[in-house]
Amino acid sequence: MSTWQQTQTPYGTGSAPPPPGFYPQGVPYPKADGGYPIGGGYPTGGGYPTGGGYSAGGGYPPPYGQQNAPFYGGSNVPPQNDSFNAQDNFGFNDKTIRKNFIAKVYSILMCQLLTTLIFVAIAIFHLPTKKYIATHPGLSIVAIIITFGTLIALACCDDLRRKTPTNFILLCIFTVAESFLVAVSVTRYYPDQVLMALGLTTLICFGLTIFALQTKVDFTVMGGFLMIAALILLVGSIVAIFFPGKLMTLIIASAGAIIFSLYLIYDTQMMMGGDHKYSISPEEYIFAALNLYVDIINIFMYILAIIGASSDD
């Protein structure tokens, strides 16, 4: 055992200095000059030792960088921002976040569709309600105003659709108003026609969703094309008002069903993210559910129009 370890005398009282980079635990630093031991303790030249951490044998913890490796100060530092893509910034690199996001979107969507189904069932099977709707057209005008108002608010205002519970309140108001409008529309058709359209819509939407999940074709790049197609459909619908007829109705309804079927694939892939070029942020679960709901409702209404126009009545 060395003289220093035997005596345990603090440095500065005449004993030999401690070995470089080591100062015994429990032995105070000298108060005569207020500095570190000459020749020992911290290395000369200033700063911390190269490579991080204090000298071996000391009682001091390693620096923050080494304590938090591999995230800081280690060799496994995450890549810089230029190696991230848009999906990583949205959190789609984490499968758990994506699964939770998709589950939340479809949960909201199922509640919306269930609400609409209840309104439709009451409108076609409950005769007093059907007569009341037919004799009060002003309710439809109010529902149209509410539908477009809430739709614009949710689609154009990021703060409204991301702030809870405002986003859920607006979405509920929109869903009820839209469900009422759908209920008013189906009263013009026979119950068997409505049920047939409902069944076809379910099969089509289920098939399109499976296709969107399995196909390698990236439909997220078709946003501009779909927007142009929707505008053309709007113009055609306005023209059909002045030139009514079964043929015109079949053409507009068929085109609308195709366009919104493509929109359903587009919105599904936008929600799924993954290898697609564009994806929606996990914070936009209200917006994603709103898009899917509008797509499904439009597919249902256009298919119902095709069935109605194809009948002999």
TrEMBL record:
InterPro entries: Bax_inhibitor_1-related (IPR006214). Residues 1-26 are annotated as: Disordered. It is found in: Membrane. It is a multi-pass membrane protein. Residues 1-12 have a biased composition (Polar residues). Keywords: Membrane, Transmembrane, Transmembrane helix. The chain crosses the membrane at residues 105-127, 133-156, 168-187, 193-213, 225-243, 249-266, 286-309. This is Protein lifeguard 1-like. It comes from Sipha flava. The gene is LOC112690764.
